[in-house]
Specification:
With about 450 residues, the chain is of the alpha/beta class. It contains 16 helices and 13 strands. The protein has a 4-stranded mixed sheet with strand order 1-4-5-13, sandwiched between helices. It has a 4-stranded antiparallel sheet with strand order 6-9-11-7, with helices on both faces. A 3-stranded antiparallel sheet has the order 10-8-12. Bound molecules: uracil. The site of uracil has 6 residues, from α9.
């Protein structure tokens, strides 16, 4: 077998066998197949796609390129969630303790920021002392003793994906649905949970700009998960404006805590109830999403979800006092108010622009080894549909570098769009895709 022949085969639209896929991924990881051949294969997949059989085999070959997490030491059906990446997405910080408090063990591996989107691990590190690097033993022990652990992905989980992603990033092959689906699902399968809930974001702030593309990606991932015996459900959610009001590491953790105290913004809570009730359903804890939502409400109102977050912070070495003393989070020295440039209604807040603006003041990385300013971010006081008067404060920017903040605040001001009529609200949830929909 030769890589050259396999590239030609895929280029010509033929189906690769399991052996051929294993040979290719294995050869790529060992260095026998060159990066330029991998680029040619990625481009062939970009244009020709993959059958669902190829997609499953490609995903498993990626999983087998590194270590996998064995969660059999934790009893019960373990649930995991994944977001395809958004701005202001603090869902894991809420859902991991909330769903654990509702009785489903959560052993979650999360990532750092990517592009204009933030990462859960960076956000959690704004809690003083909070450890995101856990040994395998500690990770499993925490889930066994308190029901939840959220840790950074180990470096040897799906090494083929790291290599392939780096090539895709520079060869125009990131936005290929089979390559994204297998990249995400290989990491979820390797992380070992039984039930997988995928939050597939769509809109200006997401990788998938249209609902149609988001549906295709969701279906590809549900197909992979189902074929590999994981109970997989995808939710297609709106990312045309940032989620909630806070964007930036510590600001987002504070918003998540507020939400667990029952004071979460409407869009965030709607998404939480949808994702959470699907997690409870997929793991068999409840029989329907309605029952799941009722259990979530009870868990929130009793204070059990907040208590679980506190336990998780303690178990991972963080200071639990942050829950009642937000001043313990890293504090920005400077604050800039951004005001409305028109009278009317907010008709759009370009999420990607907001993400990029806060990145320039240190909330995200330009280079892989950049150190974040965990206090930097923006609080959006006005969201789409809100009435505004010219000059009224629409957002508050927090940071430590006034010059950069001035540039970022102008960018945020321009990301707000206005209309004279109240805009028709877009749905927060477009669809829920289960194996029955395939
Ligand atoms: N996120 C991933 O993990 N992989 C992709 O290919 C795109 C987004």
């Amino acid at each position: 077998m030769q890589a050259y022949e396999l590239i030609i085969k895929k280029r010509d639209g033929l189906e690769l066998t399991r052996e051929e896929i294993n040979f290719f991924i294995h050869g790529f990881c060992s260095g026998e197949i060159t990066d330029y051949q991998v680029s040619a294969m990625a481009m062939s997949i970009f244009f020709r796609g993959m059958t669902s059989r190829e997609l499953g085999d490609w995903t498993m070959a990626m999983v087998n390129s590194g270590e996998t997490i064995d969660l059999r030491g934790i009893s019960g059906v373990k649930a995991d969630k994944h977001s395809t990446g958004g701005v202001g997405d603090k869902t894991t910080i809420l859902l991991a303790p909330w769903i654990a408090a509702a009785g489903v063990p959560i052993a979650k591996m999360s990532g750092r920021g990517l592009g204009h989107t933030g990462g859960t691990i960076d956000k959690l590190e704004s809690i003083p002392g909070f450890q995101t690097t856990l040994t395998r033993e500690k990770f499993i022990n925490n889930v066994n003793s308190i029901g939840v652990a959220v840790a950074g992905q180990t470096s040897n989980l799906v090494p083929a994906d790291k290599k392939l992603y780096a090539i895709r990033d520079v060869t125009g092959t990131v936005d290929s649905i089979p390559l994204i689906a297998s990249s995400i699902m290989s990491k979820k399968i390797a992380a070992g949970s039984d039930a997988i809930i995928l939050d597939v974001k769509t809109g200006s702030g997401a990788f998938m700009k249209t609902v149609d593309d988001a549906k295709k990606l969701a279906e590809a991932m549900v197909t992979i998960g189902t074929n590999l015996n994981r109970n997989t459900i995808a939710v297609i959610s709106n990312m045309n404006q940032p989620l909630g009001n806070a964007v930036g590491n510590s600001l987002e953790v504070i918003e998540a805590i507020e939400a667990l105290k029952g004071r979460g913004p409407e869009d965030l809570m709607k998404l939480m109830y949808t994702l959470g009730s699907q997690m409870l359903t997929a793991s068999g804890r409840v029989c329907s999403s309605e029952e799941g939502a009722a259990l979530m409400k009870q868990t929130l109102e009793s204070g059990a979800a907040l208590k679980k977050l506190k336990e998780m912070i303690v178990a991972q070495g963080g200071n639990p006092e942050v829950i009642d003393h937000y001043e313990l989070f890293p504090q920005a020295k400077d604050v800039l108010e951004i005001s409305a440039s028109e009278n009317g209604y907010v008709s759009d807040i370009m999420a990607q622009e907001i993400g990029l603006a806060v990145k320039t003041i240190g909330a995200g990385r330009e280079k892989i080894d950049d150190i974040l300013d965990l206090s930097a971010g923006v609080y959006l006081k006005k969201k789409v549909g809100d009435a505004v008067k010219k000059g009224e404060t629409i957002a508050v920017l927090y940071g430590n570098d006034r010059e950069k903040m001035q540039v970022a605040s102008a960018r945020i001001g321009q990301a707000y769009k206005y209309s004279s009529d109240k805009p028709v609200p877009l749905p927060m949830i477009y669809a829920v895709i289960t194996k029955g929909d395939l």
